[in-house]
Amino acid sequence: MDLAPASSPGELLPDVIAELARTLPSEHVGAWARLLRSPDCTAGPGPATQARLIEARPGFALAGAATRLTRAWRSCAPVPSGEAVALALDAAAAVASQFAAWRSDAVVSGPVSESAPVRLTSAVISELIHDSRTSLLVVSFAAFGVADVVRELQAAAQRDVRIDLIMEGTAAEGGTLHGNLGAAEAFAALRPHATFWTWPAARRPSVGGARAALHAKLVAADDQVAIVGSANLTDRALARNIELGIIIRDPLVVRRMTGHFRSLMAPGIGPLQQAPE
Asked: Which of 56, 141, 208, 273 is geometrically suited to a Cys-Cys bond with 31, CB 3.0 to 4.6 A?
């Protein structure tokens, strides 16, 4: 059995525990915590405990991790009990699990590479809307040809989800889109069920005669999860263009984004105003 050192002797126990909880499978961390609370580990961080940790999950090479843990454990003064180390492992594992649930991830449109697994923007947006239960905030510069997104939004409206759509308009509407139709037209079927917002020309700054644009792209659900990226809500951007975005699952960050837009929507204060029905 290989009990050779796998790390420098100067590692601190809290750092080792935090890294093990983050990198080892949760089943292994749980098995170690149970073992450290058992009578088998009353002797502390000696060779016998180290051997039992390695054998706690057969078939998995844990010698290096067990060595790191027991070495850092022995370096403490005073040396904590096995129960204390087990409690620290459980706490670190709980934090690691929560962090994993909030972890961001990349989404793409267009060609998919083989370098790393990524999810498609269209699938993530549809899933996010499908899973919403209380609120949806949708912001886009351009929008057209997204029948699947419209259907998911209609289904959300039937679940009494509050839907706010902030869309860029045409030059005639005070916006910066070329052509005759603003982005809101893609969601005309939602008129009775959603609140539409615009940025009037009178409230936009201008530079050299050009108006500022409503250029953000955001879909946020329940103030808990959001997707932000380069893709507009168009069939071309969601399916064919090379686009890149990120899905954010940290509710604190998502609430900052939705809170920002809701402050811009505040009646009489924010620059956005509700579009006439």
From this structure: 56
